[in-house]
TrEMBL record:
GO terms for molecular function: ATP binding; phosphoribosylformylglycinamidine synthase activity. Belongs to the PurS family. One of its GO terms (biological process) is 'de novo' IMP biosynthetic process. Pathway: Purine metabolism; IMP biosynthesis via de novo pathway; 5-amino-1-(5-phospho-D-ribosyl)imidazole from N(2)-formyl-N(1)-(5-phospho-D-ribosyl)glycinamide: step 1/2. SUPFAM superfamilies: PurS-like (SSF82697). Keywords: ATP-binding, Cytoplasm, Ligase, Nucleotide-binding, Purine biosynthesis. It is an enzyme of class 6 (ligase). This is Phosphoribosylformylglycinamidine synthase subunit PurS.
Amino acid sequence: MGRVLVQVMPKPEILDPQGKAVAAALPRLGLTGFVDVRQGKRFELVVEGPVTPEVLAQARKAAEKLLANPVIEDVVAVVDADAADQAAHAGASA
């Protein structure tokens, strides 16, 4: 079984009150250096076989037609989750 990750973010011109609340809370927790926070959505789509270019194309269609509200959100990533995990682990161990 494969997994596809879809990331959706508010468009830059859209107010993000959740992101603003998180940004305001970070310094109170002693976490400094962050100048802005935007909060988005992450979807994990499980497929029966491997993640192929065709599967990614179908996932992008699903993201654009159902998972994101095109008026206020952008689909920013549609990727093979296992490949992304492997790349993240390879970068962390380097």
